[in-house]
Amino acid sequence: AQTVTQSQPEMSVQEAETVTLSCTYDTSESDYYLFWYKQPPSRQMILVIRQEAYKQQNATENRFSVNFQKAAKSFSLKISDSQLGDAAMYFCAYRPYNNNDMRFGAGTRLTVKP
Amino acid sequence: DSGVTQTPKHLITATGQRVTLRCSPRSGDLSVYWYQQSLDQGLQFLIQYYNGEERAKGNILERFSAQQFPDLHSELNLSSLELGDSALYFCASSVVGSYSPLHFGNGTRLTVT
Lengths: 114, 113
Description:
heterodimer; A: 114 residues; mainly beta; 6-stranded mixed beta sheet; 4-stranded antiparallel beta sheet; 0% helix; B: 113 residues; 11 strands; 51% strand
C-alpha cells in the first residue's frame, strides 16, 4: 500500500520569508502524480500545486514550488514570500497512474508570523 | 467555489442512529470520492465511485455504505453511529485521469452525541 508521510506536524515562518514543507511517500509504482493541498481555517480543501512523476522539471505556481526527488521519493513544497493568508494545514497527496484513488499525508500546520 | 455541493453542512445526532450525507459532483465529473477527517487529523479515504460503479475502497467501516446514482450524485450512509464517528466528511469529484485534481466540497460536519 502506498503511504504518504509528512514529518513536520507544525511549522512557522516569518511573513515575507521562505518555508519548506516536507513530504515523503512509499510506492513501488513508476508512474504516479503528487499534489499539495491547502486547508485554511474554513476547512476548504484547495489545490496548491501538482507534479507528474515522469516529469523531471519541478512544478511552480507563483510563490509555490516543489522539489521533487523521485529516487528519494520526496516531494517538498516551498512557499516564497510567505503571506498571512498562507497560514493553513498543508496536505501532501499521492495518486498512482491508472488509479483514481488519492491518499493524503497527516498534514503540516503552517503558522505565519507578522 | 469548487462546484461540488455537499448537504447538510452540519448534522447532530445521537449514538445508534443512522444518517445520510449527500454530494453533487461538479458538472461533467464522473468520479466521486468520500473522505473522513477527524479532528485535527488527515483525510482518510473511504470509497470512490465512477459513473455509478464502486471503483476503490479504503478504510470504510461495515456500518458505512455509499452509492452513486444515475444522475451522478452520491450518498454516504452511516449507521449505528458511535461517538468516534464524529468528523468532517468530505466529498470530492474529478474527471477521469490521475493527473486531474480532486475538487472538494465544503464538507459535512457530523457530531454524534
